[in-house]
Amino acid sequence: MATSNFMLKGKKHLAGFLFVLPATVLVGIFLVYPIIFLIYVSFHKWGILGTPKFVGWDNYLFLMKDARFWKAVWATIYYAVLAVPAQIALGLFLAILLNKKIFGREIFRTIFFIPMAMSFVAAGILFNWILTTTPMMGFLPKLFESFGLSFPQWQTNNPNWAMVMIVLMNTWKSSGYTMVIYLAGLQSINISYYEAAQIDGIEPGWERFRYITWPLLAPTTFLLVVTTTVFTVRGFEPIYVMTAGGPAGATSTLVYYVYNKFPNLMGTSSAAATVLMGGVLLLTVAQFAANRRKETYF
Hints:
It is found in: Cell membrane. This is Binding-protein-dependent transport systems inner membrane component. Pfam families: BPD_transp_1. The chain is mostly helical. Helices cover about 75% and strands about 0% of the residues. It has one domain: MetI-like (MetI-like fold, Orthogonal Bundle). A two-stranded antiparallel sheet has the order 1-2. The radius of gyration is 25 Å and the shape is globular.
C-alpha cells in the first residue's frame, strides 16, 4: 500500500515536471545561456571575427578608466530619474481621471493607450518631426516662434534639453501602460474603505487620495517603479532614433555605449552590458528590500 502511494505521488510529480519542462528549456536557451555567454565574453578580447582571447579583468579595468563609460552611466541615471517619475505620475493622473464615471471614458481609455501599440521607432520619428530645430524647424519650434518665444536648440548646443525631449517622447509612448496598471489597482480598492473614511470625516478629494487611495496603491506603485525602471535603463530605440547619442554624447546611455562598442570590442561591450545587468539587478533587490520594510496591510 505504501509502495503504491509512493509510486502514485512520484507519477504526479513527474507529470508536473513534464508540464514545466518546455518552459524551463526555453528559459534556459533564451535567458540563462545568453547571460552566461555574456559574462564569458566579458573576460575575453574578441572582435567580430577571430577567436576569443582570455584577458581576465582587463575589459572591466578599461571601463573604470574610460571617461565615455562614466558619461554613459550618468546619462543613464539622468534618463531614469526623469523618465520613471514622469511615466508614473502621468499614468496615475490619467487613471484617476478615467476611473470616474464620465461620458466616453472607454473611448478616452483607448485613446490614451493607443501610443503603447506604436513602436518606439515610429514614435521617435514623429517626435523628431514635431520637435526638430535643425536643419528645418518642426511644428512646436515654429509655434514658439509665432508667439515670439525661443525653443531650445536641443539637437546642437543644448545637451541637457536633448534628454528632456527623449523623456517627453518616452512618457507619451509609455504612460498608457502605467495608466492601465493603476486603473486595475484603483478598481481593486474596496469601496468600504472610502465609506469608513467618510464617516471619520475625511473629505473627498486630496485628503481621501492621501490617506486612503495612495497607501492602498503602494503595491501597484512598487510594481510600476520596478518595471518602468528596467524598461527605461534598457531603452535603445528612443536614443538611437531621436539623437543617436548626441549632442556631444549627452544622451549616450549605457545601452547605446554597448551598441557602439560591440562590432570591434565585443569583450568591452559585454563587460559594459554585464555592469548594466548587475546594476539593474542590485537596484531591483534594493527596491524589493525597501518595499518590504514599508509594507503595510490594511
